[in-house]
Amino acid sequence: MEFQIIAGELCLDFINTLDNRPVPERRKELLCSYEDLADWAAQAGAIDAALRSALIREAEANPVTANAVLTRALQLRESLYRILKTRLAGRRIDELDRRAFSATLGEALSHLQLRPTRSGFRLDWTKEPVNLEMVWWPIAKSAGQLLTSDDLARVRECGANTCRWMFVDRSKNHSRRWCDMKVCGNRTKVRKFYRRTKTQRRHV
Ligand SMILES: [Zn+2]
């Protein structure tokens, strides 16, 4: 499956994998299997192609564990969504969500290792042994960074009522309104145009 990666932040693209959130009857889960999750993570740049293949092989050999990891990843996604949504509304976040997210973040970060580079150091994820949980570690890290950065104030929801995908508005004049101009921006424009021509016709 091909995913749209538009948010400018890994954890927000992850939130957007539950499509059409505002309309319950049209809500669509884009991550229906561990393989979908690994595909998404590779396309979003969270893991590389080699790790994606290794994880998918591991998931095929351990389907029960793979499903449990998928469930856990989706729980992380939903608690993160609630945290951001509450924050966007200017309300206090739920204590249970805060605790759950903190625990998940702590677990992810415990798999980072300090590695020397030519000019200093970098933090790398543990690569061995291959562990199905690896797929969500970078997402939790991205969320921890976003929640504690200035970019938090630039998190927006797409202007289309049925979409509401989240993204970071990094446009120069902070005027980005759509997840994707080609998808939602145009849909709304087309609708507006249609409404206008209808109104005009009525006046003729
Ligand atoms: Zn949209």
Can you put this structure into words, describing what you see?
This protein has a single domain (10-177), classed as Jann2411-like domain (Jann2411-like fold, Orthogonal Bundle), CATH 1.10.3300.10. Helix content is 51%, strand content 10%. It has helices at 10-15, 34-43, 49-61, 63-88, 95-109, 137-147, 181-203; strands spanning 18-19, 28-29, 112-116, 121-125, 155-157, 166-168. The strands form three sheets. A two-stranded antiparallel sheet has the order 1-2. The chain has a two-stranded antiparallel ribbon with strand order 3-4. The model has no long low-confidence stretch (mean pLDDT 92). Bound molecules: zinc ion (ZN). The site of zinc ion has 8 residues, from α7.
